[in-house]
Amino acid sequence: MTRKLRLDAVLVQAVIAGALSFAHLHDLAAAAGQTGWKAWAYPVSVDLLLVAAWRRLRNGGRSRLAWCWFLIALVASLGANVATAGFLDLAHPPAWLRFGVAGWPALAFLGGTLLAHSPTAAGDRVPVVPAPAAPAPEPEVDREPVPDPVTAAEPAPALPEAPSPVVPPALVDHARKVAADHRTRTGTDIDTATLRARLGIPEDLAGAIAAQLA
């Protein structure tokens, strides 16, 4: 209910303001020498240009052309309201007022034509950042399966066995003497570790000599 009353009050205010502005424009045109129907056509022309510029601003973006003609029509309407408030002697209007009223039809026709038929220039609009384009889908490529490096690896070749060391005959004879001395003292055959320690030779060489003494 409150909203309906508020809207009605706004409409009433708009009707009153429009009627007063319409009457002021009519009185100004009549004072400038426009009589009869011509005096009534002036306020219609001003209001139509004002509405056309406002619609262009609402539908065509922030156009400099629409703002220019909107301000021209607004100045014409506001100027008529101020001029009829006693600031000008309408019984003896100045020459510039008669000149402006006489030239208004051509000016209003030019503005209405430009607003109705001129496309909105790209530079007059507020730049809009385009939305980022969706990335193009990647083409499907048949990819071969990657072999498992663990299962696909070839078995490592077996390392060749190290050759048996060559034992000099003199060393074998010396080892026999050491083994006989050990058997005499302990009553047991000499083992490989003891033979290696007595002769001071590598382990593989001691093993080869022990194999020959067995």
Keywords:
214 residues, mainly alpha
Description:
Helices cover 66% and strands 0% of the residues. The protein has 214 residues and is mostly helical. The N and C termini lie far apart (125 Å).
Overall mean confidence score, pLDDT: 74
Q: SS-based structural class?
A: mainly alpha
Amount of beta strand: under 5%
Query: What helical percentage do the residues reach?
Result: 55-70%
Shape: rod-shaped
Number of strands: 0
Q: If helices are DSSP runs of H or I spanning 4 or more residues, what is the number of helices?
A: 8
Cα-atom radius of gyration: 58 Å
Q: List the quaternary state of the chains.
A: single chain
Report the biggest beta sheet as strand number plus sense, adding barrel if it closes. Answer: none
Order of helices and strands: HHHHHHHH
Low-confidence stretches: 122-126
Ends distance: 125 Å
Describe the secondary-structure layout.
Blueprint: H1 2-31, H2 37-59, H3 64-87, H4 95-117, H5 149-152, H6 169-186, H7 192-199, H8 203-213
Helix pairs in contact: 1-2, 1-3, 2-3, 2-4, 3-4, 7-8
Gist of the model:
The protein has 214 residues and is mainly α.
